[in-house]
Amino acid sequence: MPWDKTRCAYRRLLAPAWVLGCMALCAGCSSAGSAASDVVDAMADSVPDSVAGDLAPADVPVALPTAAEILQAGPYGVGTLTLDLEDKTRPTPDSDTLAGTNSRLLSTAVWYPTVPTGAPAGATPGAPQAQGGPWPLIAYAHGFFSFNVENEDLAILLASYGFVVAAPLFPLTNIGTSGGPNAADVVNQPGDMKFVIDSMLASSADPSNLLYGMVDPARIGVMGVSLGGLTSVLTGFHATLRDPRVKAVAAAATPGCYLPADFFQIVDLPLLLLHGTRDWIIPYAANGPPLYAEAQAPKTFVSFQGGTHAGMAGLAKAVLEKTNSDQVGCDTLVDNTTATPEALATLSAQFGGKPHDVALAECPAICGAKADTEPAMVIDRQLRIVMLSSASFFRSVLAGDAGCGRFLREGLAAEGSDLTVQHVP
Questions:
Q1: Distance from CA of residue 69 to its chain's centroid?
Q2: Is residue 353 part of a domain?
Q3: Strand order in the sheet with 124-125
Q4: Nearest Cα to 308, choosing from 172, 109, 143?
Q5: Is residue 39, in this structure, part of any structural domain at all?
Q6: Chain segment 19-70, per-residue pLDDT in tens
Q7: Distance CA 182, CA 186 (A)
Q8: What are the residue ranges of helices labelled H in 301-355?
Q9: CATH number of the domain that 305 lies in?
Q10: pLDDT tens digits, residue range 308-366?
């Protein structure tokens, strides 16, 4: 939905944090910090989904930042910690050789803004927080056969601009799952994301906690890659699984083929989609463009010419260095019985996606068609575009940075002919 002055004025009534967002419309990409206010705590639950915040408005004069400016470290240092969370209200089901339990263990990596230290880029464990909160929160969902720090560089970049990022390790879809990851557990992962958000808000409300006063309950976003992308979309938009506190969603290499055409009719939130045309695991044509077409505005879709599936996360750089044909991912998945067409079609029906027979007929098998008609995008470049896209999106939508919004609309596509950026305000 389009931005208008009424929305900005409404935010002004909600909290002083949004005043900073409105003032930032006349500036370039800037710090995401905002002042705390009792009004935010009192009214956060009543903020309508429609007031979440679109890309900062295009009709306000603002300088266009460069990619280098967006990727440079922000004004804050970055601290990190690990929270050993346990949701005792929901079970972990049996999975292959792994016996189920009565709770869900969610070891969660957290990155947050600290006082600038002048130290080299990175994150300092347990460092004291910076002044200026509460900050926007991003809950990050990792991909299948991966782990929660797969995009740590992006988390550090966001934290340096005044964001808190929390990334849980899902109990049955991470790379270390005993007996192999189980894709069927994705139906439980939106609940994990909700629990992590609950836990972060509880920590922020506890004066004895290191995270005290850090999280703004009115500015929460989610992001994920692959199965984590599906998790994020479900958390933001699903009729019954969604968390109404989520105000922005970013998803990369998402298996959108399994979502029905009316999936996005429940609520409209700012949405960023990323997909590579050379994705062997979640093929581009059947998943990326259809998902974007079905989504409601405001929405942005970044297509990576030659972009791969694994190249959406930093894990790919560590494993495959400069190029990636997704072959390693396909070799890993070949014996996983939870990722077969039949299993995924059954899963689709379970979470309210396309009916089993429709999904089986319409959604291509993972690694079923390996298109070698174009060279793979270099991993370093693909990760750079992931960071540019995601950081610009969240800084615009959740922090009101007009320069970042303009970069996503205009500047990103100018980064090269191997990118296509579509946007509907």
A1: 21
A2: no
A3: 124-125, 77-87, 104-114, 164-168, 135-141, 215-225, 246-252, 271-276, 299-304, 419-424
A4: 143
A5: yes
A6: 333 333 333 454 333 333 333 333 344 333 333 456 656 566 799 999 999 9
A7: 8
A8: 315-320, 327-333, 341-350
A9: 3.40.50.1820
A10: 999 999 877 766 654 556 888 888 898 899 999 999 999 999 999 999 999 999 999 99
Instruction: Give φ, ψ of 150 to 5 degrees.
Output: -60, -30
Using the Cα atoms of residue 164, residue 106, residue 321 and residue 285 in order, give the sign of their dihedral: negative
Instruction: Give the helix/strand (H/E) hosting 287.
Output: helix 284-294
Q: How many residues does the chain have?
A: 425
Residues 164, 83: contact at Cβ < 8 Å? no
- Residue 122 CA to residue 157 CA, distance in Å, equals 9
Phi-psi region of 362 (alpha: psi -120 to 50; beta: other; left: phi over 0): alpha
Q: What is the pLDDT of residue 60?
A: 61
Exposed (0-12), middle (13-18) or buried (19+): which is 88, by Cβ within 10 Å? Answer: exposed
Q: What are phi and psi of 51, to 5 degrees?
A: -105, 20
**Cα-trace Rg, the chain:** 20
Count how many domains the chain has: 1
DSSP state of 95: B
Q: How many CB atoms lie within 10 A of CB 310?
A: 32
Burial environment of residue 294 by CB neighbours within 10 A (0 to 12, 13 to 18, 19 or more): middle
- Domain range enclosing 170: 5-330+366-424
